[in-house]
Write a structure and sequence with these properties.
With about 300 residues, the chain is an alpha/beta fold. It has helices at about 15-25, 40-55, 75-80, 80-85, 90, 105-115, 130-140, 175, 180-185, 195-200, 205-215, 220-230, 245-255, 295-310; strands at about 5-10, 30-35, 65, 120-125, 145-150, 190-195, 260-270, 280, 285-295. The chain is built from 14 helices and 9 strands. α1 packs parallel to α2 (about 40-55) and α7 (about 130-140) packs across α9. The structure holds ligand AGV and calcium ion. Ligand AGV binds near residues 152, 161, 172, 174 and 242. This is Nucleoside hydrolase.
Length: about 300
């Protein structure tokens, strides 16, 4: 039987590519999609999501809008990316947008979808955890219907990827945007699989990957990958604040093919205040999380490119 997946994302290039790849996996069934305006603006990210579902899906999915708010907002330049994906000709050829907008806000849509699904649901989150924290407060009974949470977030390395005033650089952005939400989920009994910077650092966007997608652009889905990853800066000489990694796509690929990675269980807490807010720290008193700390890089890029060829 196919694994039931509910996907909450925040409209970045790799979030939207993740949605596309999920629609191409025959081992999973998407039960719901929602969008949180964290690393995106909501309107273009909603349109892009609905158009990706129309173009690459088989129908039957609506998309819910989050009304969650940040503690620490994302930089505007990064949030603009959703406008570029939404404008791609490949998503606008039909001139129509069919996938409906859900009536409920994302956190209630999540709760309703999980309760309405007979089997337990795997939650896939590639942005902050705010909608899950709010869903748990609004409908605590969902907890026992959640198989596990797979989240792109956190790191146990010294260096995170937040480079902001008043912060010490130890956090990963999806935790930093709303540290309390992560702490709320840590407080639950949900099983957590964390795709942390340890593994995502091993899959930067590089020029050889772009060249590979360019060579195979005769496949519509591979052309779509190439167009999307033309919008963001690759790793060339050294990593900068804006260098792009395949953070969320690795997280999504882990759901479809867990053999790509290595996992280790770590007890951890989340810092919610001060200059280290959003930092995930290993400590014996913490709760267990399964950390994806290593990936077979070549097998990962092969896997996602082969999925794209099915489009
Ligand atoms: O921290 C990684 C998360 C992922 O969910 N996001 C991007 C991915 O969607 C935030 C982020 C960190 N560095 C970034 C980010 C960058 N250089 N550009 C855009 N987003
Ligand atoms: Ca994201």
């Amino acid at each position: 039987m196919k694994e039931k997946i509910y996907f909450n994302h925040d409209g970045g290039v790799d979030d939207l590519v993740s949605l596309f790849l999920l629609l191409k996996m025959d081992t999973v069934e998407l039960t719901g999609v929602s969008v949180i305006p964290a690393d995106c603006y909501l309107e273009p990210a909603m349109f892009a999501s609905r158009k990706i579902i129309d173009r690459f899906g088989t129908g039957g999915l609506d998309v819910a809008e989050s009304n969650s708010r940040p503690k620490n907002p994302f930089p505007k330049d990064w949030r603009m990316h959703a406008f570029y994906v939404d404008a791609l000709p490949i998503l606008n050829e039909s001139g129509t947008v069919n996938a409906p907008v859900a009536e409920q806000p994302a956190h209630l849509h999540l709760a309703e979808t999980v309760l309405a699904t007979e089997e337990k649901t795997t939650l896939l989150f590639t942005g902050p955890l705010t909608d899950l924290a709010r869903a748990l407060d609004a409908a605590p009974e969902i907890e026992e219907k959640i198989e596990r949470l797979v989240w792109m977030g956190g790191t146990f390395r010294e260096a995170g990827n937040v480079h902001e005033p008043e912060h010490d650089g130890t956090a990963e952005w999806n935790v930093f945007w709303d540290p309390e939400a992560a702490a709320r989920v840590w407080d639950s009994n949900i099983k957590i699989d964390l795709v942390a910077l340890e593994s995502t650092n091993q899959v930067p966007l590089t020029l050889d990957v772009r060249e590979r997608w360019a060579k195979d652009r005769k496949y519509m889905g591979v052309d779509f990958l190439g167009q999307c990853y033309a919008m963001v800066p690759p790793l060339v000489h050294f990593s900068t604040n804006s260098t792009y990694y395949l953070w969320d796509v690795l997280t999504t690929a882990f759901v479809g093919n867990p053999d790509l990675v290595k996992v280790q269980t770590i007890n951890s807490i989340v810092h919610t205040d001060g200059p280290s807010q959003g930092r995930t720290v290993e400590t014996a008193e913490g709760r267990p999380v399964n950390v994806v700390y290593d990936v077979n890089r070549d097998a990962f890029f092969d896997y996602m490119t082969e999925l794209a060829k099915k489009a």
